[in-house]
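Technical annex B. To support the medicinal chemistry partners, we prepared a structural model of the target in complex with magnesium ion, based solely on the information shown next.
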Amino acid sequence: MDEFELIGRYFTGLDKGPGVVLGVGDDAAILAVPAGEELVTSVDTVVEGVHFPADAFPEDVGYRAVAAAASDLAAMGARPLAMTLALTLPAAEPLWLTAFSNGVGTAASAFALPLVGGDTTRGAAVVVSVQVFGTVAEGRALRRAGARPGDRVVVSGTFGDAAAALELLAERWRPDPRDGEYLLRRFYRPQPRLALGQALLDVASAAIDVSDGLLADLGHIAAASAVAIDVEAAAVPLSGVLRAHPDPQTARAWALGGGDDYELAFTLPPGTPVPPGCSVIGEVVRGRGVTCDVPAAAPGYRHFAADGDGRESDDR
Ligand code: ADP
Ligand code: MG
């Protein structure tokens, strides 16, 4: 199977959408940006053996790559428009490709991201790059800058499940099988908070999606906004599975330090109602940096950091 056969068989036909003028098959795709809106774009790459185990189900690999990229659109409050996919593969295995493209297709329709183009190359390991495009009314996108002293710090969903799943995958922890299934699903099938992000336009003063770790990502809001953030550890919401963990400190460390949850963290000016399903976990104050009443939470993972050992979080 050559490159063109592969593209035709697995990656065409997912390219229909209201903003798509021209999809797969030409030298480039053409997208329509509605009048009065701006284009928002981001790219995310995952590498086999680094971001996901080599024996991960290919459906999950495809789905998760798209979901993680879509989460950046959620954090900006953007409406999804389209995506492109750059794929590097050691070999063209039909079973793998069928499953992988099913995962991509499921996510494409779940998040309204038609696949309008890409690139397919041979290489030593599976590498998946998803570039997403979205639109937002001019000047209204959510940014990391904008938090002000007196704002409340709010998060969607629950934290730490993906970090717990990584511990499970690394065989450092063996939960009850049903709990393990739940955690792996949270890791492999993240749900980017696209609707929430759009609902926060003109409401939140700053926003970020949590991919590196809650405290680390709040640190990005604090730095960009030139403020400090105080987090109350006990207020950070945990899933039932993590609440039932025999060692509450471990569960708490996963929630504060682990990445990959793809929830939103944002700041709300005083008097703004907290959206349903969201929790207040702290406040914005004068100063710099993030403080938390529980010390020694693991920092988020940083690529190429001299002291990064790659354990515990996203972006390995
Ligand atoms: P070019 O050589 O002009 O860059 P390619 O031969 O790489 O084009 O790709 C042919 C068409 O197939 C293009 O429209 C490209 O966007 C699309 N394409 C290539 N790989 C993928 C992929 N993995 N997923 C979706 N579309 C793809
Ligand atoms: Mg070309």
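Notes passed to the chemistry partners:
The first helix runs from residue 3 to 10.
The chain is about 30% helix and 25% strand.
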